[in-house]
């Protein structure tokens, strides 16, 4: 049926919005919808062919209706595809802003479960949930973001969006993070130790999961 | 001119520029977060704020070696202030980027319309960002599927067929606003509601009805 795959794609996009990670790219469905559009376009061309450019809708209401349906289906499919890709690229952009390296992280979710690492090395451990085009997009978008951020060096655009309350905070070290330089000298962050440090100095490390903020 | 107006004038003149800038920045930040559409870029204000932030950062860097407890205490206060300023600017910029993301083509049209006037909609860097982001997106769409479409369907800003592809923000969304100066009677378009706004009044009203007053500074969003 016309538009059925497109509909599925939209449902997929809707589901993606609620998920924390990005589900695999539906190459097959995208191709199917694209194919449908091209077939419809061919249909339109073949319907119009006998009229040789002098088609009058009022004399041939039946043909006009068929054409209209075809056109609407094509437009609808285009919207579905655009929506699907937009949802995904929005998600990818969000990850770029949050400082998550999307390309690096891709294979990880599978090897995350302890004890089940061996079997996941099977068929799909290499396949990414991004399409090649999306990977390219992420790469270029991170460059763009870095360039835009570079114009606001003093502000640190990707910093926390929580209003700052205290200049200094208590943090506990969750993972060894080595030595960091602060205005008050160097601090060596070893696991399970606790520090009272300037928020701005360790914000990055908190976001990356090295430190935990104690309230 | 009554006593309120006189008071208002005295208030404005006696406040130093720095404090007024903070007030303006906070106002711009709140307005940007609440208004449904992108507001003009406050160029001179942002320039002043950014220069001041840079000064303060330099001052902090200069003074860090100083071990005098008094200076140290002052430094902590300056740093706290700095963090707050940085937060305001950051949040402000992020709110704008968010809107640029949601309605890129609509904003672009608005920007080209206003580019000749004194108050451009976008900062130069934001304009650059928008353009390269759009280029990236359309390239992504094209390589993913759009290039295989019939030529007549490849456009991204198509307005034929009854539906415009350019998404617009909801200009009739309700906002909270406080009136700063008497503006007289306001007519809410599309309805027959009229009301009078006087200084200090707070209203929930359609953005489209009070947009002009917010932009001219007669009212502020809260």
Automatic annotation (TrEMBL), chain A:
Q: GO CC annotations? A: GINS complex
Task: Give compartment(s).
Answer: Nucleus
Entry annotated with the keyword Nucleus? yes
Record-level GO BP terms = DNA strand elongation involved in mitotic DNA replication
Please name the Gene3D superfamilies in this protein's record: 1.20.58.1030
Chain spans, region Disordered: 106-133
Q: Which UniProt keywords apply?
A: DNA replication, Nucleus
Main location group: nucleus
**Briefly, what is this protein's role?**
The GINS complex plays an essential role in the initiation of DNA replication. Required for correct functioning of the GINS complex, a complex that plays an essential role in the initiation of DNA replication, and progression of DNA replication forks. GINS complex seems to bind preferentially to single-stranded DNA.
**Which family is annotated?**
Belongs to the GINS1/PSF1 family.
What name does the UniProt record give this protein? DNA replication complex GINS protein PSF1
Q: Which organism is it from?
A: Massariosphaeria phaeospora
UniProtKB/TrEMBL annotation, chain B:
InterPro entries from the xrefs? GINS_A, GINS_bundle-like_dom_sf, GINS_Sld5, SLD5_C, Sld5_GINS_A
**Occurrences of domain GINS subunit (ranges):** 54-144
One Gene Ontology BP term is: double-strand break repair via break-induced replication
Question: Per UniProt, which keywords does this protein have?
Answer: DNA replication, Nucleus
Where is this protein found?
Nucleus
For this protein, the record's Pfam families field holds: Sld5, SLD5_C
- Name the GO cellular-component terms: GINS complex
Question: What Gene3D superfamilies does this protein's entry cite?
Answer: 1.20.58.1030, 3.40.5.60
User: Has UniProt tagged this entry with the keyword Nucleus?
Assistant: yes
Q: Is the Nucleus keyword given for this protein?
A: yes
Sorted alphabetically, which SUPFAM superfamilies does this protein's record hold?
Answer: GINS helical bundle-like (SSF158573), PriA/YqbF domain (SSF160059)
Q: Which domain of life is it from?
A: Eukaryota
Residues covered by the DNA replication complex GINS protein SLD5 C-terminal domain: 169-222
Function noted in UniProt: The GINS complex plays an essential role in the initiation of DNA replication.
UniProt lists the family membership as follows:
Belongs to the GINS4/SLD5 family.
This chain's protein is named DNA replication complex GINS protein SLD5
């Amino acid at each position: 049926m016309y538009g059925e795959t497109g509909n599925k794609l939209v449902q997929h996009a809707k589901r993606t919005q609620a998920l924390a990670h990005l589900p695999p790219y539906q190459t097959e469905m995208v191709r199917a919808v694209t194919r449908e559009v091209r077939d419809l376009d061919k249909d339109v061309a073949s319907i119009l062919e006998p009229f040789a450019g002098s088609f009058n809708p009022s004399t041939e209401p039946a043909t006009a209706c068929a054409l209209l349906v075809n056109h609407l289906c094509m437009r609808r499919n285009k919207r579905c595809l655009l929506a699907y890709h937009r949802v995904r690229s929005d998600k990818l952009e969000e990850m770029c802003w949050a400082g998550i390296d999307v390309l690096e992280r891709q294979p990880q979710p599978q090897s995350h479960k302890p004890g089940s690492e061996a079997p996941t090395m099977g068929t799909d451990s290499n396949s990414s949930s991004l399409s090649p085009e999306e990977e390219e997009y992420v790469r270029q978008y991170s460059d763009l973001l870095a360039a835009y951020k570079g114009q606001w060096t003093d502000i640190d655009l990707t910093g926390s969006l929580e209003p700052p309350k205290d200049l200094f905070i208590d943090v506990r070290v969750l993972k060894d993070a080595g030595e960091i330089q602060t205005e008050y000298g160097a601090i060596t962050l070893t696991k399970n130790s606790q520090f009272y440090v300037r928020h701005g100095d360790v914000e990055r490390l908190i976001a990356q999961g090295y430190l935990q903020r104690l309230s | 001119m009554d006593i309120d107006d006189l008071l208002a004038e005295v208030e404005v003149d006696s406040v130093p520029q720095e404090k007024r800038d903070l007030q303006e920045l906070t106002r711009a930040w709140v307005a940007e977060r609440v208004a449904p559409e992108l507001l003009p870029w406050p160029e001179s204000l942002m320039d002043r704020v950014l220069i001041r932030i840079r000064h303060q950062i330099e001052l902090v860097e200069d003074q860090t070696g100083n071990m005098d407890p008094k200076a140290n205490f002052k430094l902590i206060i300056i740093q706290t202030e700095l963090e707050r300023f940085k937060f305001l600017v950051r949040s402000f910029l992020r709110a704008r980027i968010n809107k640029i993301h949601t309605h890129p083509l609509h904003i672009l049209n608005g920007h080209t319309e206003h580019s000749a006037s004194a108050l451009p909609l976008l900062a130069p860097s934001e304009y650059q960002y928008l353009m390269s982001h759009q280029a990236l997106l359309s390239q992504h769409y094209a390589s993913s599927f759009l290039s295989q479409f019939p030529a007549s369907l490849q456009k991204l800003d198509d307005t034929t067929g009854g539906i415009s592809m350019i998404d617009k923000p909801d200009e009739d969304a309700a906002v909270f606003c406080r009136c700063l100066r008497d503006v007289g009677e306001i007519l809410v378009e599309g309805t027959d509601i009229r009301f009078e706004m006087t200084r200090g009044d707070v209203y929930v009203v359609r953005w489209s009805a009070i947009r002009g007053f917010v932009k001219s500074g007669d009212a502020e969003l809260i």
